[in-house]
Amino acid sequence: MEYAPWEFVMYNVLRTGVLVLFAYPFLRDKGRFSEKTTKFFFVLLEVLWIIIAMLGYTEPIKSIPFEPKIEVAQTVMMVIVLLIAIKERPGKLLFVLFELYTLGTFISLLAKYLEITFVHDMAYQKYRWTASVSIVIVNTFVLVPIIFLIHKDFKAAMGKTGDSTMWRYLWLIPGAFYLFWMQSFYSTYGATLDYASKAENIIFIGTIEIAALFIYHMVVRLVVEHDSLLQEKILTHSLQMQVMEFNDLSNRINDARKSRHDLRHHLAVLENIAEKMDRQALRDYIDEFRAVNRLDEVMTYCENVTANAVLTYFGQVAAEQETAYKVDFFMPENVHIDRCDISVLLGNILENAVEACTKLPKGTAFVNVKGGMLNEGVLAFDVENSCRNELKVDPDGSIRSTKHEGKGFGTESVRGIVERHKGTVNFEADEDRFRVSVVMYIK
Would you say residue 370 has pLDDT above 90? Predict the structure, then answer.
């Protein structure tokens, strides 16, 4: 063995440690577990990286006729650990992982060129302390500035949702560069050293890496723009829905004013009917008055004014289209959630439910709402409605729109609100019914 154990460990920690520390702040908030457990997974990732590197020098592993076996094994390990620890789309995680891996490989190659240039003899001995010193120098003067430049892109990529179908394929871009590195530099160690010793090769590879970073930048910009357009459409849709609810409330107020204004006329008619002792006419007039003024409609479903307004509005819509509408929902007035979120969340779900019922024969459809605040800090409810078997559910649980190409704005808006509150939403479609289940954690 040409190197001491501490030299081996130091080199591997320095090679991956900076990139892991860079990625951690963006990924910790997306952890499946507590922050403490997420930290453990990142430390575990570093430890497993070193263990796999050590196993590469055992005879059984060395006998495998596949030169980049260690690097591929380390990559697979990182993918598995991140998928377990981080709750994020696999395509997005692969995109970030391959981007950082190719960047780290270029840094290692540049550090090796620096080591060969100044300490030629030790450079041909694996994992010597001079390799660690070279890594530190390159990390300081090359990697850190690059990280500073890509910081915004990295934050945008992890922060924006984008379309899940996009991330299914976008990861192939850095994945192609990853395969390029595997093919070019991991045939034999000696060949890699010879390649790294020539300045023209470093310039060539550096140019490719700069081009790759530029491509990553453009991809992230496109994702951000796509996400912004989607959010604008969702906001427009939500505003349109709130305008409808406001118009309904205005109509109810106007109806109440009109009823009060016409009260003396109604009293005069009732007095005339009473004088004639015509019971049937009295019943007919009362039924007509009740129908015109919608007195049979439930006006209060829960204590929360915003939620009640949404439930009442769609109850009216359901009644007009002869859809059975049943609500068992509890939400107090004082809850720690934005009123706009309540309106958009309930409104989008109920709008889709009521609209689905319009495609069925009158008198056969239903909408059931059940749930509410289970305890302080937990909101859980289900909305179930009858429907035709024409809904398409993506593998990630998203609903394809029946009005346009792509996902429904309403369901994506619901998903965004629920995820912002660290909750989950499930869409289930059977042959003749559709169900939305929401669980949210409200601080």
Answer: yes
Per-chain mean pLDDT for the chain? 81
**Domain span including residue 317:** 297-443
Highest mean pLDDT among 193-202, 290-299, 360-369: 360-369
287 is a domain residue? no
pLDDT band at 189 (very low <50, low <70, confident <90, very high): very low
Q: Are residues 442 and 335 in contact, defined by beta-carbon separation less than 8 angstroms? A: yes
**Domain co-membership, 166 together with 64:** yes
Question: In whole angstroms, what is the distance from residue 23 CA to residue 92 CA?
Answer: 13
pLDDT at 195 over 90: no
Whether residue 186 contacts residue 192, with contact meaning beta carbons closer than 8 Å, is answered with yes
Other residues' Cβ atoms within 10 Å of the Cβ of residue 62: 11
CB 399, CB 391: distance < 8 Å: yes
DSSP for residue 407? B
Q: Which DSSP symbol is given to 404?
A: S
Check: CB of residue 427 under 8 Å from CB of residue 411: yes
- Residue 325: phi and psi, rounded to 5, are -130, 110
Backbone angles phi, psi at 2, to 5 degrees: -85, -15
Q: Are residues 306 and 224 located together in one domain of the fold? A: no
Tell me which of 394 and 75 has the higher pLDDT.
75
Whether 226 and 305 share a structural domain: no
82-91, 238-247, 310-319: the lowest-pLDDT one: 238-247
Whether 134 maps to a domain, the answer reads yes
User: Which residues, including other chains, have CB under 8 Å from residue 320's CB and lie 6 or more apart?
Assistant: none
Judged against a pLDDT cut of 80, whether residue 409 lies above it is answered with no
Q: Is 80 exceeded by the pLDDT of residue 322?
A: yes
Q: How far is Cα 163 from Cα 159, in angstroms, rounded to an integer?
A: 13
Identify any residues that bridge with 386 across adjacent strands, giving them in sequence order: 433
pLDDT value, residue 436: 94
> Quick one: pLDDT at residue 188?
46
List of residues 6+ apart from 284 with CB closer than 8 A: none
Query: Which amino acid belongs to residue 419?
Result: E
Neighbouring residues of 69: CB distance < 8 A, sequence distance ≥ 6: 56, 61
- For residue 40, what are its two tokens? 């453990």
Record the pTM.
0.64
- C-alpha–C-alpha distance, residues 311 and 245, integer Å: 10
User: Residue 398 carries which DSSP code?
Assistant: P
What is the total count of domains within the chain? 2
Intra-chain end-to-end CA distance of the chain, in Å: 57
Distance CA 127, CA 370 (A): 63
Give the separation between CA 367 and CA 384, rounded to whole angstroms: 6
